[in-house]
Amino acid sequence: MPNVTPVTLQQIFTAQQTIRGIALATPLVRSTELSTQLGAAVHLKLETLQPIGAFKIRGAANKILNLTDKEKARGVVTASTGNHGRAVAYVAKAVGITAVVCLSELVPQNKVNALQKLGAELVIHGQSQDEAESRARQLAKERGLTMVHPFDDPLVIAGQGTIGLELMQDLPGVDTVLVPLSGGGLIAGIALALKSANPAIRVVGVSMEHAPVMAQSLAAGKPVQLAEEPTLADSLQGGIGLQNQYTFQMVRDFVDEVVLVSEEAIAAAMTFALKEEHLVVEGAGAVCIAALQSGKVSNIGENVALVVSGGNVDMGQLLRVIRPYLHPSTQ
């Protein structure tokens, strides 16, 4: 492990206490079918059961609850592909402060509707997550709002890292953990917690094949930009920022492997989750199942955990995705 990290294990333990009462300690359940398929004990970490249906509530809560009274009075702003914005809006409403959420025009309507229900001020701007974030930073300067970054913030990373603490408590013998990978806040926090407990635990990041910015950045040795492409894993869209301060370093230093999965594999995994596990899982939440089922990860050991990061999928989209698998003879 590196001698110096932007986030410490102590900060993750502190975050666990800070967010208690807003974010849930989610269950880790064994998947009988996946365990049979893989010949190992495969467990699902169900972040779909968070109050907002995704893990993002952890990091948002830790950031917002650590603001000063003056910062809270001015309010917060963020940019999001949906779930982070929902988390910021939910936590802001819980503590009684103003939240502004900037979204690109590509964010699915079901996620826009959910944000409206939480009372957030929505700003639709641009054709990418990067453009939405640029607008959020502009609003932060103009209105004195505090930026709650989706991933590149030590408090957000520490909040997401509480998942790693729960994994160690529930499955101390875990060999391999698969985590969805986008901007890197989720996997950075989890990997730090796990590697601090046992450096031998393998941490694998999973992204979609369509514009996997962190994967390409790691290959290039520095943050890069890619044009966004349509994907079922829409929550994993967006860049990591050319001036990335924290997550690129932590993913590079703590994550053992990054694998990419196809749209077909994601669709099959979403279908599997519904049929076999009775779980509604969005594309981004299904990528780890997809990676295992498509043989992208080898040497998984005896005990495996998959982070099922979110379940906020549009029902129309889910029905379109699963229909070919439910009625293959009609295709």
Mean pLDDT across all amino acids: 94
Just give the CATH class of the largest domain: Alpha Beta
**Strand order in the largest sheet:** 1-2-10-7-8-9
**H/E element sequence:** HEHEHHEHEHEHEHEHEHHEHHEH
* Main sheet attributes: strand count, strand direction, barrel closure: 6 strands, mixed
Q: How many strands in all?
A: 10
| Oligomer classification | single chain
What is the structural class? alpha/beta
Number of domains: 2
- Estimate the helix proportion, in percent: 40-55%
| First-last Cα distance | 50 Å
Short key terms for the protein model shown above:
single chain, alpha/beta, Rossmann fold, six-stranded mixed beta sheet, four-stranded parallel beta sheet, 46% helix, globular
Explain what the structure shows.
The chain is 46% helix and 14% strand. The protein is built from 14 helices and ten strands. The chain has helices spanning 9-18, 32-38, 57-65, 69-74, 83-95, 109-117, 129-143, 154-170, 185-197, 213-220, 247-254, 263-277, 283-293, 315-326, and strands at 28-30, 41-46, 76-79, 99-103, 121-124, 146-147, 176-180, 202-208, 257-261, 303-308. α5 links the parallel β3 and β4.
